[in-house]
Structure formats: C-alpha cells, structure tokens
Amino acid sequence: MAQKYVIGIDLGTTNSALAFAEPPEDSRDHAPVTLLDIPQLVNPGEVRDESLLPSFLYLTGPNDFPEGSLEMPWPSDPAFVTGELAKKRGSENARRLVSSAKSWLSHAGVNRTSAILPPTAPEGVEKISPVEASRRYLEHLRAAWNSKMPDASFDEQQVLVTVPASFDAVARELTITAAEQAGYKNVVLLEEPQAAFYAWLERHPDWRERVHVGDLILVADIGGGTTDFTLISVTEAGGELQLERVAVGEHILLGGDNIDLALARLLEQQLAEKGTKLDAMQLHALWQQCRVAKEHLLSGESKKDEYPVTILGRGTGLVGGTIKAKLRTEDINRVLLDGFLPVASSEDMPQRRRAALAELGLPYAADAAITRHLARFLRQQAANAEHGSVRRGPSGIACPTHILFNGGVLRAPLVRDRIIEVLNNWLAAEGMEPVQPLLGEDLMHAVARGAAYYGMARSGQGVRIRGGIPRTYYVGIETAMPAVPGMAAPIKALAVAPFGMEEGTGASLPDREFGLVVGEPAEFRFFQSAIRKNDDAGALIDDLDGDLQELSPVEVNLTGNAGEVVPVTLETVVTETGQLQLWCVARDGRRWKLEFNVREQVAQ
Amino acid sequence: MSRIVSAFKSFFVILFQGELPEDVAREFGYSKPQPVKPPPPPQATAADGALQILGILQRDGRLVDFLMEDLRAADDEQIGAVARSLQEQCHAALQRHVQLVPVIDGVENSFTKLATNDPTTVKLLGNVPASGKAAGGVLRHKGWRAEKVDLPTIKPGPQTLIVAPAEIEIE
C-alpha cells in the first residue's frame, strides 16, 4: 500500500477536525478536499459520526457509565472517553474533565510532560499530562480514519497537524511528541492562520487576480479559546506571485468561550436582581444556552432583537422549576462591542496583568479587548525590523490591504464588521485605503481543509506560503565579569536561528566555541523573540529587555571519557517538517542534539 | 491407563483404523475438548425498544418529565417556554433515530387517489362504501411512516427497565 491521500488535522483547543485530499495524477487538476466524519461516543452505548471531535477527555470513574457502554468501532481503552460524550459527562462531573489541553501544551509555567490535568481532579484520580491528552485526541482521529478508510492505512499517508502560529519551539516539539506517541509516522506541522489562508487559496484558484504584489494580508483567527494573528505578504520572484508569512502574534488565550461566559454572567446577574439564584450546573446550562442564543442573534438571519434562554428545571418538576430569561441584542452589543471589540486607537495597548501571585491555571489574557491586542500586534511590526516587505503607514504601523477571517466567532457579521471598522479607522489615520475582506467559507473547518491543501502544495501541487520559523531564537551566554555578591552574572543572548529561517536549511556559528564537559549534562538558557527580526545568526544582544522571552532551557549530555572537555560549536537546523533543532558539533565532526528540558522550568 | 497399554493400543488402532484412539488422545492432551454451547443471548423485546426511545426522548428533551408533570396550576407562558425547548430537543432526537415521512405525500384537504385500501396504511372516514374500498377521497391527514429506524443496539437486561437514572449531586 502506498501513500494515496494527504490528511490535514486541526487539533483545536475546543474542537478537532480531519480533512483529506487525494492528489490528482495531473498536477493541474483541482483536487477537492473532503472532511472525514469522526465516529465518537455521544451517549453511553451510542456511537455517532460528527464532523468535529470536541477536544475534551473524560477520565472514567468506577461508576460513570454502564459496563460495556464505551465500546468503539475499534479497540479502545475504557479508562477515558474523548469527544462529545466526554464533553457532556464532563459538564456533570467537571473534576474528571480535561479541557483546553492545547493551551496547557503552550503554557511554559507548568511541567507539560507531567500528569497535571485536570488540575482540579480529586485525590485518587490518575491525572494525565497535556502531551498525553493531545495524544489521545490524535489517536482517536487515527483510529477514526482507519475505521472509515480501511483501504488506505493512516500510517501510509502524509499527515499535517496544525498548531497556532504563536506556538513556540517547545510547544511545537511537544505536539510532535504527542503525534509520535499516537503512532503517527509522517507528521508535518503547519501554522493555523496559514492553513486558513491555504483553505482560501483552495477555494479561489484565481487568487492571483485577487491580490497583487505589495499587498499585505492580515489573517485574524478567533477560535473558541484562542486568538491568533498573522501577516502574509504578497511578493514577486521571477515574474511569479509569491506569498510570504512575515509576522505572527503572541499566544492570546481569549476566544468565543469567553464571550459566551460573559453573556451568561450578564444574564445570571439579571436573574439575581429578580431574586433567582443559579447553581453551578444551571450556570453551565446557561452558558451553553447563551452560545445558541448568541449564534442565532448574530447570524444575520434573525429579525428579532431578543432570544429566549430557558434553563429547564433540574428535577422531575420540569415546568415548575424552569427559569426563563431573554438574551437581547443590546446586551450582546454591549458585551461584545464594548467589552471584546471596543473602538480603540492604534496607539491603545492591551492592559497587562499586574504582578500578583500567579495561580495554577492557564494564563488567560488579562485584557478582553481583541481590538487592542490587534493594535499591539500591528504596532509591534512597526517598532522593529525590515524582514520581508511589510506595508507600513507613516507612523510605522503595519497596514494590511486585505483581511481573512477564521474561527467560529468570526461567523458573526457583527464581529467582522467591527474589526473592519476599527482597522479602517487606523488605516484612515495613516492615509491608507480601507482594508478588503477576503471571503472565506466554512470557518469551522477551514484549517483542516487548508492543511490538506498544503500537503499537496508541499509535493508541488499548489502554491506554497514561504515562512520559515516565526521567531528569532537565542541561547544565553554568561558574560565573563568579576562576580558581584548578590547579583547574578549578566547574561547576553546569542542569536542561533534568525527569523524566517526556512525549512530544510541550517545555520552554524563556527566562530564561537563552547567547552562542554563530557559525562555531565550541559544546559543552555534559551530565548525567543517574535519582534526582533533583524538579528542574524551570531548576533549578540547585550540587553535582554522585554523583547526577549525565556523558554525552557535546552540541554545536551555528551557521552565519552568523563572529565574531558570538548570544544563544540552550535548549529541550528530547521527540518523539512518545520522543527527547530539545535546541535553541538565537535571539531572532529561528532554531533549531539540539544533537547528541551521542560521539567526544569517548573522548579524555578 | 498404564503407558504400556496405551502404547500398544495406540499402535494397533493407528495401524488398523488410521487414527489415535479417543481415550488416549484425551489423556495425552491431543484432543480438543468439545466446545460447550453458550446459552443463547437474551433477545431484546419490543418493550426494550419502546423504553429505549422513551429514554432517549427523556435524556435529550425531558419528554417524560413533561408528560408526567401535573400542569393544571402552571401558567401558559411558563409551559410555552418549556415546550419550545422540549420540542426543539425532542425533534432533533427523533430526527436522528427515526426518519419520519408522510404516508401520502399530498396536499391536505385536496382530493387524492388511493393506491391501496390496506387499513394499516389508509383509514377511510365519512361515507365509506359498503365494500370498504374507495379509489380516492379528500386527504385529511398525511399520516406518518418511519422510513428508517436507527437506534443504538441495546444490551437487554434488567437495567433496560430504567427510563432515566436518578441524579444525585455530591456537594
């Protein structure tokens, strides 16, 4: 059996999807991308096909489900459930529910390979690590494929898994680890906003007539749990239009779920004023109802300006115990337009969380204003760097010509219109033309579709966005200075991988040798910056200011005669699959790979 | 059986009958034990299916709660709010499991020709002729027919008498 399909997997924070395409014999032909229905338990004993797999995992307790009611069409472990049933049962017993595993995967403040989820699990429940949770979703998708497509084994196909553009090298590495543990063989990572753009390309084979050299496309991706921005620039080489990803934003934990919860809280308050108190489960029901009501009122099809929200009585006294409320359009407008999408100037920056005792939880965005996060993203491109050709206004802010929306939240015309309105205000202030929306379709599945298209583009069938790594990476070097009591030795940062370093290339620093002691682990501090884009490999930064963020350290353990000191140089490689690797190279050509040490971070 | 007896017996039986004697084969573990037939699995009954669909409509749409509740004192607005949610959920559940189509896909209150007079399919009302047969009439109700029933397989047993489990919250 040989490779026949390209599989694109959108491993989402709240929902996952799988799409596939069959590359045509003639590369000029259009290959349609198809979504795979994913069989999953929706109730005990009931397996159903759904187009999305909710990214929820429920750790089964002793009396949770009737015996034998968790059987899947493939051999499965009844110790946990993934998908719709996990989400459903998890709303009844939240302490066994693992959710947002992906956000935990990119959270540097915790040990991501140790069993920490769910954080609120009662004693006696065996927790799992963020990597393992991701692995379970990937395993489910693999099994779903094999059961639906028995003639084309999953392991034989080319597989693309999408990650947020804001994922750093460690989170990407951990995603690969999860995929490998799930038995994936040929995995390539792809950034989600790029995937969304590929989905647009797939739908518009005439894209060359729609964008022009010098254009700058902003991809705004607002999903259930995260917001991600990317800039793609249209350039030219040899008379052909080219696409280049020139900037990615930071990881912002803010999305549609926050909006629904804010609406639920508002209604809860209105009910409380009338003397009706809700318990935790009623609030959860209200949260889900608010999502339905919001989607209905924002769909643009609704003529009414309110939608009933009903929380059914919990006991057998159904009608008597039911609580009625109404979600009004003006409430939505207030929460959405004032809270999440306020009119902001391009100078407004999101509020930072004040230094406080960090709780054990996800680092949710401190400022809910998506527009201010966008302002910061475009400003950051201004402050630094001439990497690629980014279209700018007189004040230096990046000025997109087009905007492509992705993610469930952006299905609402109100949200899209407000973002365009705010963006156009900024552009007008810079004397620029208004932005043009690129109309995407199917915002829930675009990423999986785009990933499958990219898989074909990789083999030469379709246009490919050039990008390389979305950050500059540095290792920390302690400066040789007399020790001062009470002060750590100052540290400098040596750029080892420049922004935009492309897949399949390497960079080495032959001039700078390090003496490594054989037989004991040598550790390097590791930094990244999404903002500094002009540092070439070998550049030394004296001042580690706010532009640089520290990542998990990297370490290497040289085997050989203990006590020997080996002079090595550093070499960076970006693999064909987009993974960043650091190597130590000895003078005689021996090589050792540096590994991320995600465990160390937590001890600090 | 002593080993000498077994050896001789085996020798001659193999020589003349071409196979190992059954008792020797059993003793030395060369014979497969006869498979014991498992008792037939309990069959799902019509009652199981009925309770199952009730269970589904209760789980997804709270139908049983609604039907069992005393609504004489409840005000219409409150009932209306519940009915809206209940109807939506039960409709979705029903559509998933039972695909309902009209028996006669015509326009109600207009004249319709009949292809059959089978009483389970068509019920004749009004001035029904003595023969009990008619070639057509005014379609008053289109009827319902389940084109497809797609219910999860159930494992029959005592637990299938449960329509909805009791819910206990640990505080």
Largest interface: A-B, 20 and 24 residues
Biggest pleated sheet of chain A = 9 strands, antiparallel
Neighbour order of strands in the largest sheet of chain A:
22-26-27-28-25-23-20-21-24
Structural class, from secondary structure content of chain B?
Answer: mainly alpha
The 3D shape of chain B can be described as elongated
Using only CA atoms, what is the Rg of chain B? Answer: 32 Å
| Helix residue percentage of chain A | 25-40%
Total strand count of chain A, please?
28
Beta-strand portion of chain B reads 5-15%
| Cα-based radius of gyration of chain A, to the nearest Å | 25 Å
Give the total of beta strands of chain B. 4
The overall pLDDT of chain A, averaged over residues, is: 85
**Strand count, sense and closure of the main sheet of chain B?**
2 strands, antiparallel
Q: What distance separates the N and C termini of chain A?
A: 50 Å
Tally of separate helices of chain A? 12
Low-confidence stretches of chain A: 354-359, 600-604
SSE class of chain A: alpha+beta
What general form of chain A does the structure show? globular
Helix content of chain B: 25-40%
Describe this structure in words.
The complex is a heterodimer of chains A (604) and B (171). Chain A is of the alpha+beta class and 604 residues long. Chain A is 26% helix and 28% strand. Chain A has helices spanning 84-92, 101-105, 130-148, 169-181, 192-203, 256-273, 280-298, 329-340, 370-383, 413-429, 446-458, 600-603, and strands at residues 6-11, 15-21, 33-35, 38-43, 46-50, 53-54, 57-59, 80-82, 97-98, 158-163, 187-191, 216-222, 227-237, 240-248, 306-311, 323-328, 402-406, 436-438, 465-466, 472-478, 491-497, 505-517, 521-529, 540-541, 549-557, 565-574, 580-586, 591-596. In chain A, strand 27 and strand 28 form a beta hairpin. In chain A, helix 3 (130-148) crosses helix 4 (169-181), helix 5 packs across helix 11 (446-458) and helix 6 crosses helix 7. The longest helix of chain A is centred in the N-terminal third of the chain and has 19 residues, at 130-148. Chain A starts with 5 loop residues before the first strand and ends with a helix. The relative contact order of chain A is 0.12. In chain B, strands 1-4 form a two-stranded antiparallel ribbon. In chain B, 38% of the residues lie in helices and 9% in strands. In chain B, helix 3 crosses helix 5. Chain B is elongated. The A-B interface holds A 43, 45-48, 66, 68, 281, 308, 310, 312-314, 316-320, 322, 324 and B 59, 62, 65-66, 68-69, 71, 74, 77-79, 81-82, 84-86, 96, 152-155, 159, 167, 169.
